[in-house]
Structures are given as structure tokens and as C-alpha cells.
Amino acid sequence: AGGGAYWVDSQQKRYVPVKGDHVIGIVTAKAGDVFRLDVGGSEPASLSYLAFEGATKRNRPNVQVGDLIYGQFVVANKDMEPEMVCIDSSGKSSGMGIIGQDGFLFKVSLGLIRKLLAPKCEIIQELSQLYPFELVLGMNGRIWVKAKTVQQTLIIVNILEACEYMTAEQRKQALAKLSGN
Amino acid sequence: MLQGYLGEYTAPLIHGLIHVAVRLCRDAWLQRRAQAAPEERGERGDTSVLAGLYGPAEAKVSKELPDRAALEVLLRPKVGLPGVLERSREQLLRQTCEAVVLGVLHPRTAISLVLQVLSDAGSLLSCCLNAACMALLDAGLPLAALFCGVTCALQPDGTILLDPTARQEQEARAILTFAIASSDRKVLMATTKGSCSVEEMQQCLAAAQRAADTIFQFYRDSVRRRYSKC
């Protein structure tokens, strides 16, 4: 018998920032020492230029307006503007930071992201057998994909978007057809 | 058989903010629940309203409230510009929605609900209420309770008709619209056009509360169907 705590999974499209969530943000402005990021919530989040691994006042990170950043929230509540950082508690970046060039960013519902981030997610395993690709999942519903060619990237994007409404059977059929070609 | 269903998602505008619900009321089905035997089955009109909900999004500084979300309702008629009647209905809808939405969880944000009338064959306000509730449900906003709208027409001889058609509304002595909450069936909003006695209003209210059960069951079935594949 457990402690009696329940997790209620509900379907939403609009993201509400939560402390500790890893999200993909789009840089919209540089205001002095702070970047403004659009994370899909009701307010833009702020990101200090010192919140990157190895960043000092002399050694600033090369961030431009329009760049994609993968970071986590250190401050996120209903009363304050959300704040993000790209380092963890020990000062290492552990996968966070500026997301590289190319690739494709698209939006899905929050429920699908949670499904993809579940420990044993078959979707990602099956897709990785199809083509090699890089994948970044943001809890705010944003996914960034990069494969070798544009066509492969778009195929992966379409499968991920369709996964929300396909059963496991239909997905396996679709992937079998693709790997057959 | 009720033909109402939740429509498809339209393509996301601007930042993927749209949650769309389509509510179709078929008069013939709803008339089966009326207390008086419905005579006109020949008139099969459809009242349908398209609802889109945006939010919680960034609010303009002039409109933001420091402790809760600012809710705004826009009702667009089928033809013409919105007039005084639309404005008064918007206020009724806004007050009903504010009573159920937990706005304190999203201070300094704006929630916009846009309703477009596609066709009007009677009972428009209750159709708008139902569409608004489904839009709130679909968007996943935190709610204290669901609500539904029921229209009662009081005929000259005293019989009560639920969800009247446009013609029945014109012939009726009074039209009463109630918004009923799902928790304990309490009244969230009541509006009357015409004259009726207090007893008659109580009878209409009782009939509306009974009818609300069917509408809430419909909500449940629609949502179940919508998420059955996830």
C-alpha cells in the first residue's frame, strides 16, 4: 500500500511554467545582461547570460535573437516572471544550452510530451531504428528534431505529430511501410 | 440522438493558442425532454455556435488584474456587427465563466473566449453557454465546476417547453435561461424575458435542473470519445 498520492494526467495545449521543468525557449530580445525567451506561457522567461557553463563577465555566450535554448526553470510561480538557467545545481550544463543550427522545431500537446518522456517509450526506440536523429523534448510542448537530410527530418516530425492519435498497431504499420521504402 | 460533437482542432494560430469546440443542438431531440408535448416537429432547426478559447496569455497592462485572470468574452452574431444584445449576452457569459474558472491560479493573465454564431434556430444563449463550457473543458483550464445552459419557454397556457425553437420563443409568454452548475445543480445565472409568476419561475428552474443531467452526460460522452485514442 502506497502513501495515497495520485497523479492526475490531463490534456492541455497551453503550457504553464513549473520549477524544474526542462523546456525549449526561443530568444526574443536581449535586454542588457538578460535574455528574454518565449517559452509558450503567459509571460516571457528571463535568462541571465551568466547562467551558461563556463560563462564569465568576459566570456559571454554567443546568443542571438531567434536562437533556441534548452534550459530549466529555477523560478516559476504564478506571481513572478519565470527565470531559466542552462546549468544544473553543480554548474555543469548536462545537455542544456543553445541548440545547434538546422533541425526543425514544432509544437505538440503536453500529453504527448509526457508520453514520450515516460521511462520505457517505444515510440522513440522504434523511430531510432528507422533513421539516426537528434531529438530535444521540451516540457512546454516543443520538440526539436534533426536528422541527416531534410526529408528524413520531416518524416520524423510527421510521425511524432501523428503519434498522439495513433494506436501502437497503426504506428508499427506506418514505420514498417517507411523502412520498407 | 444528440448530434453534438466536439469539432476538430483548427490549425494553430500565432502560438498554438486555439481550443475549439463546436456545439450543435438539434431541437427535435431536446424537445423530447420538454414537459409539454412538442407539436411542431416539422421545424428542424440547428442552433450552432463555434467557440475558441485563448489563454492564459499575456494581458495588456491596462486590462491585467493583480490577483486573478482577466476573462473576456466576445460574441459575434451571424450577420452584422455586434450590438447591444450581444454585449449584454457577453456580460452574462463572462459572469458565468468567472464563477467557475479558478482565475487566482493565473494572475496578470488574460483569458479570451470568442463565440461565433453559425446558425440560430432558438435557444441561442443556452447554446452559447454550452459551447463556452466545452471550450473551457477542452482547453484544460482549471475549473471549480462545469456548467450548462437550459432555456425554458413559458407558453400562454402555462405549459413549459425546454429548448424552444425560434417560433416557440416568439409565441411564448416568457423565456427563461438558466446556467446550472454541475456540482449540486445550483443556479449560476438566470435571465428572463417576458413576465411570469414566482411559482412558474420555480417550476421552470426545476425542469431545467432535471434537463441539466442529460447535458452533463453529453459532456462526459464527448470528452470520453475525444480522448479515447490517447
UniProtKB/TrEMBL annotation, chain A:
One of the record's GO cellular component terms: nuclear exosome (RNase complex)
Chief site of localization: cytoplasm
Encoding gene per record: Exosc3
Gene3D superfamilies the UniProt entry points to: K Homology domain, type 1 (3.30.1370.10), Nucleic acid-binding proteins (2.40.50.140)
Database matches in Pfam families: KH_6, RRP40_S1
Family recorded in the similarity comment: Belongs to the RRP40 family.
UniProt domain K Homology: residue ranges: 103-151
GO terms classed as biological process: CUT catabolic process; exonucleolytic trimming to generate mature 3'-end of 5.8S rRNA from tricistronic rRNA transcript (SSU-rRNA, 5.8S rRNA, LSU-rRNA); nuclear polyadenylation-dependent rRNA catabolic process; poly(A)-dependent snoRNA 3'-end processing; regulation of gene expression; TRAMP-dependent tRNA surveillance pathway; U4 snRNA 3'-end processing
Highest taxon, organism lineage: Eukaryota
Keyword terms of this UniProt record: Cytoplasm, Exosome, Nucleus, RNA-binding, rRNA processing
Localization of this protein: Cytoplasm; Nucleus, Nucleolus
Listed InterPro entries: Exosome_RNA_bind1/RRP40/RRP4 (IPR026699), KH_dom_type_1 (IPR004088), KH_dom_type_1_sf (IPR036612), NA-bd_OB-fold (IPR012340), RRP40_KH-I (IPR049469), Rrp40_S1 (IPR037319)
Name of the featured protein: Exosome complex component RRP40
Keyword Transferase: no
Gene Ontology terms, MF aspect: RNA binding
